[in-house]
Amino acid sequence: MTQVQPQTIAGQTIQEQPVQATLPKHISPGETPEQHAAFEARIAAGDKIEPGDWMPAEYRRQLIRMISQHAHSEVVGMLPEGEWISQAPTLKRKTILMAKVQDEAGHGQYLYHAAETLGATREEMLEALLTRKAKYSSIFNYPTLTWADVGMIGWLVDGAAIKNQTMLAGCSYGPYSRAMVRICSEETFHHKQGKEMIVAYAQGTPEQRRMAQDALDRWWWPAVQMLGPHDSDSPNTGVLSRWGIKLKSNDEVRQEFVNEHVPELLEAGLTLPDPDMHQNEQGNWIHGPINWDEFWAVIKGEAGLGNERLATRQAAHDEGAWVRDALQAYADRQRRSASEAAD
Ligand code: BYC
């Protein structure tokens, strides 16, 4: 508490009430620095924070924001590839793609459950998605124009996602960290099948090579953007790093992604759509400037397919209402039978 000296105003002595010293932004009203210190000591010791544990309100809010947006990305992320299931060129490619798209639905489920452990309801999260209060990954607002886009999504988008999610597997919140371990092992299969497909086309007929290069030309920059704004423009990284949610910054993860993928794409005989790309003395591949205006326009739905994606999700949500009603009626009946049996 700050001690306040009495003041004399218009001849009267005013004894002001002691005022609460301003607390840092990450400490919410009602929380004490001591509670925060104990919480941060647990994180420093490598403990996982579990659902029933005390946690700062801002830690909870940040996790709900991030995990629910991650869940939305998995679910909306089914749309660009899902469009190609009926047009896959062979039975083998079709079964792989079906398995991949089903995996993404499963990832959405694990993640919605992880966010529910923090007190968010499924209804609130879906409402936030459908009314644009919550974001989902910019990458899924790009169209899949040819079959090669399916392979390029596996190679680049899942490749970028693995870099980010391997880091999140070590995060301080138990349910998110454990979901990431399982998701990453499935993403590894997605990444391998995408790379195998594109390498085959890059070494195939001239038409296949053209298709692979065209897919790289369109997906490279969105994949680089997907890992988030530069650290200098990333308002959430500070507090997420402080609390062991993000163990690496956006630019660090992006550098890992670029370092792994550039040599592999070049080895496949493809050309990066970035005239500034070069390797520096430390061995890092350095990319040219990123078009952040495009990134934000795509997120806001001013460019790309954001409006169509949300309309598709809204239609699926409306058409699925009877399933949710039926599940609710079944759960109510089970509860009634259980309570009648107990009487
Ligand atoms: N798109 O302070 P920042 C998959 C927002 S799906 C849209 O750096 P943060 C797959 C950000 O939300 C895998 N918005 O944020 C599925 C924030 O706005 P709000 C998707 C973005 O959280 C199907 C603002 O920009 N992975 O693998 O520290 C098929 C400032 O950013 C984007 C995840 O979701 C973006 N790309 O860091 C195939 C991973 N980037 O929320 C594959 C979980 C930033 O304050 N999420 N924004 O309004 C994360 O790791 C982090 O949230 C991010 C951003 C690295 C993405």
TrEMBL record:
Cellular component, GO annotation: cytosol
GO molecular function: phenylacetyl-CoA 1,2-epoxidase activity
InterPro entries: Aromatic_CoA_ox/epox (IPR052703), Ferritin-like (IPR012347), Ferritin-like_SF (IPR009078), PaaA (IPR011881), PaaA_PaaC (IPR007814)
Biological-process GO terms, alphabetical: phenylacetate catabolic process
Gene3D superfamilies: 1.20.1260.10
One Pfam short name: PaaA_PaaC
Domain of life where this protein originates: Bacteria
Name under which the protein is recorded: Ring-1,2-phenylacetyl-CoA epoxidase subunit PaaA
Organism: Deinococcus reticulitermitis
